[in-house]
Amino acid sequence: MCGIVGYVGEEDAARVLVDGLRRLEYRGYDSAGVAVHAPSGRVEVRRAVGKLRELERALEAAPVHGKVGIGHTRWATHGRPSEVNAHPHVAGHIAVVHNGIIENHLALKQALISRGATIASDTDTELVAHMIAEEGAEDADLETCVRRALNKLEGAYAIAVLSDREPGKVVVAKSSSPLVLGLGEGEMFCASDIPALLPYTRRMIFLEDGEMAVLTAQSVEITTLAGEPVERDPVTIDWSPVMAEKAGYKHFMLKEIFEQPRALEDTLRGRLDREAGDIHSSEIGLSEEDARSIQRVVLLACGTSHHAALAGRYYIESLARVPTVVELASEFRGRGAVIGEGDLVVAVSQSGETLDTLMAAREAKQAGAKLLAIANVIGSAIPRLADATFYTHAGPEIGVASTKCFTTQLANVLMLGLWLGRRRNTLPEERAAELVEALAHLPQQMEQVLVGTRQLVANIARHHVEARDALFLGRGLNFPIALEGALKLKEISYVHAEGYAAGEMKHGPIALIDGHMPVFVLAPRDSSFERSIGNLEEARAREAQVVAVATEGDEAVRAVADDLIEVPAVLEPLYPLLTVLPLQLYAYYVADFKGTDVDQPRNLAKTVTVE
Ligand code: G6P
Q1: Cβ of 380 below 6 Å from ligand 1
Q2: Is residue 204 located within the same domain as residue 273?
């Protein structure tokens, strides 16, 4: 979740680094810093706690000019946010920025202290700097020092390193944490994520685990940690830098909410076989034989992706009749879960880098399960591990609270259910054709909901902005949406919210309801409708302020709800992609009216690469 940027070229390095770091702000951070090779021949460091503006102030107060440097935004894992804990960390002639966690840091620290090192910070990263510096006998070049030190480290890292002694060079390495190299003309870059580099180059190389690279202005040399040369062609990334900017919206999150029709269109593009009422096999990446032979599906995910996975269970069970379970990746890991051949594990992750999901997927794969990734970031760790990847094509998501990636994940798990159902002969062709056709029309209906309900939802949010709690109720496919509505509100507006299966309301949450509590009831005209209305009435009887999300023109619901948000009538499996939209808008407006940091809520990170 920390952001790394590195630069070697002819430009002012500090400026390029801060600019790159700004494009990584969405990852979440509490402090920032840069190290630059100054004309004096020394590596000079500037660091600051807080937003990048503070780092810029530090650079204005004490400018450092040079053409080679590394930069970092830190999200605290070892040691509280402070200037001394901010990266880059320096030891002797070495400066290091790091993303990840060094597992054997306690043993390393003791060993370093016993050899006379003075450790200034509470971070594991400073230990890395000392370890590399210790290897620095006069005959060893920087890459050799890095290689030797890394062989003694355990854990996850992406690092970028400078040495006083080798001014034209940045050395990088990775294990588990993401790192991408950017190839320019007479300049080279590295970063922990693509958007940092988009304004500078589209030609990128993804470093693999156990690899390192030496960057100079003219060249990039990749080797394994053992020193074996690695040949890899760059890929061209076609995301435009504008896609990663706010495009006139007040926040990235609002922009991304409104991007959902486009994102869904991109995700569906080339996948729907409208003639055959099917999903193209080439897009899913599994074989026909896989589809027929699997005996169970296990969906693994965290956070919002876990809610998409919960919807996935409904889709896969109902359309393909395969027993399906959903696991929180953090709870699956290390418990000795029963998994193996015959299981299809589907790891759902926007970033493709969430450590718990990655580790859980690895464990399942090692046990013999087939691994399918559903991810948004191309070439990220989980897709690289997986036997096949079914990408969402939502484009970069900058807001920490996931929106467009959630709805595109829903589309992918639905398409997976459809594809499996057709191959297992559990889904009649006519029904599949109907669903495929309906999916093709969904982006337009999303647009209708977003544009049509925006003002109403903003008004409802204004009305409830002071409410301390909120309850979200849904049944069937709308249960995961209730969970997601509550999560969105918690994440960005810091309002306590619960998402509940509506049928469970009377087993607890009903005791919380009073006249101050907004209760969202998801009650479209689906097979749970009558029972959902029963729950709505129960909430109303306890004086709750009921907001219903229901099918357009539903006068019966209008008569019993305080507020009614309408979505167009669609086939039952498609409702979640519409009912979630007003809940995203509600969370957004409550947060905006409260004045919270919508795009970077406190304590949260976009990509959680620690346990
Ligand atoms: C973090 C993000 C969430 C996201 C979750 C899982 O908590 O703030 O928005 O849902 O990680 O991330 P993934 O990249 O695996 O979907």
Answers
A1: no
A2: no
Task: Looking at the structure, tell me whether residues 460 and 540 fall in a common domain.
Answer: yes
Q: Is 303 in the pocket of ligand 1 (CB under 6 A)?
A: yes
Q: Do residues 127 and 61 both lie within one domain?
A: yes
Residue range 94-118: mean pLDDT, rounded: 92
Please say if 2 is a catalytic residue: yes
> Do β-strands 343-349 and 370-375 pair in parallel, antiparallel, or remain unpaired?
parallel
To test ligand 1's pocket by mutation, which of 404, 405, 599, 608 has the most ligand atoms within 8 angstroms of CB? 608
Phi then psi for 403, rounded to 5 degrees? -130, -70
What domain range is 27 assigned to? 3-242
> pLDDT grade, residue 243 (50/70/90)?
low
Whether the predicted model's global pTM rises above the 0.70 cut: yes
CA-nearest residue for atom 8, ligand 1, is 606
Q: Are residues 322 and 394 in the same domain?
A: yes
Q: Distance from the CA of 458 to the center of ligand 1, in angstroms?
A: 25
Q: Are residues 284 and 364 in the same domain?
A: yes
Q: Tally the domains of the chain.
A: 3
Ligand 1 contact via 302 beta carbon (within 6 Å)? yes
Q: 481 with 558, same domain?
A: yes
Residue 608, ligand 1, Cβ within 6 A: yes
DSSP 409-461: HHHHHHHHHHHHHHHTT-S-HHHHHHHHHHHHHHHHHHHHHHHHHHHHHHHHH
Q: Do 166 and 87 share a structural domain? A: yes
606 assigned to active site: yes
Using the 3D structure, point to which of 394, 427, 460 is the last residue of a domain.
427
Domain CATH number, residue 163? 3.60.20.10
Report the pLDDT value the prediction gives residue 244, as an integer from 0 to 100: 53
Domain boundary among 242, 276, 292: 242
Residue 419 and residue 453 in one domain: no
- Choose between 609 and 32: higher pLDDT: 32
Q: Which of these is catalytic: 2, 190, 302, 405?
A: 2
CA angle, residues 119, 122, 126, in degrees to nearest 5? 55
Q: Per DSSP, which regions of 9-125 are E strands?
A: 31-37, 43-49, 68-74, 89-91, 94-102
To which residue do tokens 């290390």 refer?
A: 334
Q: Is 604 in the pocket of ligand 1 (CB under 6 A)?
A: yes
Pocket probe for ligand 1: among 304, 398, 489, the residue whose CB has the most ligand atoms within 8 Å is 304
Question: In the Cβ-directed half-sphere of 406, how many Cα atoms lie within 13 Å?
Answer: 32
Q: What is the C-alpha separation between 362 and 334, in angstroms, rounded? A: 11
Mutation test residue for ligand 1: of 353, 354, 357, 597, the one with most atoms within 8 Å of CB: 354
